[in-house]
């Protein structure tokens, strides 16, 4: 079903927005809408999906399982997140939380495969570290906004991005982007595809999300754009980075 990719870097669809209504982070709540988003994604030549057992309290995987992803020729990746000792929303975890014990690893892998209606996935990641379990084992197995302080996700992103340093960086970028007829999102996606260290030949990829078919189509068009950003915009992004690099969190997943 997938056509030839046009983007400079491999693009992976992050299915965190798929899932049952009322669960954290989900934005797309019907199989019909999910299918339409995947149609657009594949029409632009892409076929890899990234989901997680944690997303939508397990319903992101269930939705994908009901969408016959194998028949679409999709490559599926999923992840397991250890919840023990973390202040997180309701999930499918036991009261004491999930850990990286052999028993919990095996159970979550089996649960993911069952939800996805398959006996294998391309990649299965450990979504985050579990400091309570030794690394060496013998065996292994729509409410609110992103910045809503009343939600756990909103608290996290608000603390990370809602501060003067990031506002100052945006003040540098916005007038330059507007001068060249660009949105902030376009600057971000085109910078990653044309100016970052990401390379298709190294197996690098960009994981994107979407909350609607319009959102997906816009993202795909931006990622397919073969043109690098104007030098003035790149310089503004570099200047913005100088404002935030001292407080930017390290990505530890």
UniProtKB/TrEMBL annotation:
Coiled coil: none annotated. Pfam families: Aldo_ket_red (PF00248). Keywords: Oxidoreductase. One of its GO terms (molecular function) is oxidoreductase activity. Residues 10-140, 158-239 form the NADP-dependent oxidoreductase domain. Signal peptide: none annotated. InterPro entries: AKR_Detox_Biosynth (IPR050523), NAD(P)_OxRdtase_dom_sf (IPR036812), NADP_OxRdtase_dom (IPR023210). The keyword Transmembrane helix does not apply. This is Aldo/keto reductase. It comes from Hyaloscypha bicolor E.
